[in-house]
Amino acid sequence: MALIEFRPLGVSVEVPHGSSLLDAARRARVRLEAPCNGGGTCGKCRVRLDPASRPRARIIGRHELSAADLESGWILLCNTLVEGDLTVDLPGGSERGLRILEDGRSAELPLAPWLTKRYDPTWRRTDLVGGGRLLGSEDGDTAARSWGVAVDIGTTTLVVSLIDLCTGSAAGSASALNPQAVHAQDVLSRVHLGSTAPGLETLHGELMAEIDRLIGVLTTEARVPRRRIYEVVVAGNTCMLHLAARVSPEPLGRYPYTPTLSGDEYLPAAALGLRVSRHGQVYFPPIVSGFVGADISAGILSTGLATAAGLILFVDIGTNGEMVLARDGVLQATSTAAGPAFEGMNIACGMRAARGAIERCAIVDGEVVLTTIEDAEPVGLCGSGLLDAVAALVTHGVIEGSGRFTRNPGSLPPGLRERLNRRDDKPVFQLAGQVYLTQRDIRQVQLAKAAVRAGIDTLLKRNGLEAQTVDRALIAGSFGYHLSTRSLVDIGLFPAAFDGKVEYVGNTARTGAETLLTNGAARGTLAAQVARVESVELANDPQFSDGFIAAMAFPAPRPDDLAGGLPTEQSLSLSLSLS
Q1: Does the domain made of 115-297 have the CATH classification 3.30.930.30?
Q2: In CATH, 300-337+445-551 is 3.30.450.20
Q3: Coil, strand, or helix at residue 383?
Q4: Among 188, 194, 225, which Cα is nearest to 207's?
Q5: CA distance 238 to 222
Q6: The model's pTM
Q7: Which CATH number does 2-89 carry?
């Protein structure tokens, strides 16, 4: 056996000789990105070996490191085999200062929980009643002590809040990365892994263990006994709910992508591994389709889409671009595969929104102006910074409409021209220090934004509508909350007609789950609303295919773009959080 030490975490693990360092990191529960799941193609599991350790490590296969990187001791965990004791130095800023959005718009409904308590003085017991059905009884009068938990299960992050069901108030919230990302980065990868019995057990077990840990953090802080938590409401995309319920997501990986779990149902909390009341229940909200899940259903509830007047587009931008078009309460929903670029993955210097990540980028008087999380030295580029940077470079001619770096660098101001360099004989734009944008990064942004834009355009065209007829565009989710409208329009992810109509509604998955906790009648209402939603499949729609190709190009700069300037005060005050 070999001992592997991960610095500066102070974490060590023993593994057999011949193991990959990526497997060692996973055993030690060290969270480093591996979007390619060990294929050696993404370069995200990059670490540095202590010089004394190098003779005891063997690098195999293909990799995404330059000769200079290898000479400096950089390696990829996935293609490095253990041949003895090793000391590994993790890159700076990996998870420190990680920001996860917890707040969002919520529905204003009266306090009327699904679960209630009734004290019986004759028998000196308290009956637990859920939806009019007796769930069990407790000794003594515990009617004034009743708690619930709302959980937003994102592909990338988890947010858990503790709610007093007697008052409707929140005692606190906690968040963390979704541990499943260690094994599979995106939804399709988790569908594939979760389709096997061992994979399903791993993904389910690690997810519920982390949710249970967060519940423990909250109950300790609020001094609430776990046995007084009687209900947990979980909102998440369709795959996440299947994995939470320990139901195979295999049907989501093949046409017609019909989910096994349809939602609006209950499972015992104990059976799912949550340490709450022995009578505790877990509620799964209704699901729209295989790729439009209960996170979007919760968003419909939080924003009142099913009862709102006018033409409203609701968009949750992330690894999947899920969207709902509401026409005076008539709803259509769809989803597009945007991929992980918006979360900083599959980007050469991409990272999550943690300390040192570039979160804002602007060009002012021909010079690049950057803002980083916690004002730290730049160590990478998170999603909002990526979109800002690409938008700024497009509007100032560094990136052409096709997505190529300009073939006429001489026309650029000196401050921009000198940043156009070459790395491994390929063009890059140097943002700061060792943080840069590659041609491949720009292509990843094009693919992601084209998928979302084509979904928007297809929904509108199916209904004979134009972008200018949309009254409001609601952006939900952690990633979208901190994007500037200007960048969204400048890269063409949103039509120019949406400028001035965008509203940021935040983490409506969490707030929707909280509403379902505090108002039992909302469950039946939402189930009826979701049943009426028309699910639109884009895969075989020629309008979507044509729209995707058209949306790959960046739009021509607007007349005011070249004037430069920093983003709005609102956008500067915001920072990217992930869900």
Answers
A1: no
A2: no
A3: helix
A4: 194
A5: 31
A6: 0.83
A7: 3.10.20.30
